[in-house]
Amino acid sequence: MNETYPTLRYCILGQGNYAVSMLLDNLQACFPKRDIEVEIIANLLEADNDSLIYPYATPGIVCVEKFHTDWTPDVNVPCLVGTFGRGRKAIFEFFAANYGINAEYYAISIHPTSTCSPTLHHGHGLYIGPLSVVGPQTHFGNFVAISRKVSVGHHTVLEDYVGLNPGVDVAGVCHLGKGVIIGAGAVVLDKVKIGEGSMIGAGSVVTKDIPAGVVAYGVPAKVIRSI
């Protein structure tokens, strides 16, 4: 037990074990000398959650799993969203509707190996994984999730719930609408706009604007179908 500093407490809402493992890794990296306790609050039954077969145990962090009906919220404990991708919006809305956990209760989680410009403007619930770079005068909405080795260029806007998978490179002066998901290794060139809810396939190169509500992929990326 660390007697110098009090134990840090967090609450992960929703249990996607892929995301939980990465959230715990971020916490351990940010606070390597602190004792950390985390409640993991599931909102899906075990039979409906195929991520549970994947481990998440992280040295130095004590975790307790609960189903949401057995949980009592504590406004003094910061929350994290326990999934990435499209599930982030669903989890936020579930706990907001059922427990009054609004956006301001969610902490940000930025891995210490990542570099963010001091002129980054961001909302609540931001996650940034290891070795990512965020340029100057960028604007992020609520619950943006940026995986490892991602680059976001200057004056780029990421609206609420945008998700960037590993190795994505978004150039400068781009605008990604709400809920846009960019697949691993994709490149978005300067000044491109991608409409709300669209998905870009892994390895794509986006050279021109993409409308809302579509799937696009390829080099260069082309619209394949509507969502």
Automatic annotation (TrEMBL):
InterPro entries: Hexapep, Hexapep_transf_CS, Trans_hexapeptide_repeat, Trimer_LpxA-like_sf. It comes from the Bacteria. Keywords: Acyltransferase, Repeat, Transferase. Transmembrane segments: none annotated. GO terms for molecular function: acyltransferase activity. Signal peptide: none annotated. It holds the Pfam family Hexapep. Belongs to the transferase hexapeptide repeat family. This is Sugar O-acyltransferase, sialic acid O-acetyltransferase NeuD family. It comes from Haliscomenobacter hydrossis (strain ATCC 27775 / DSM 1100 / LMG 10767 / O).
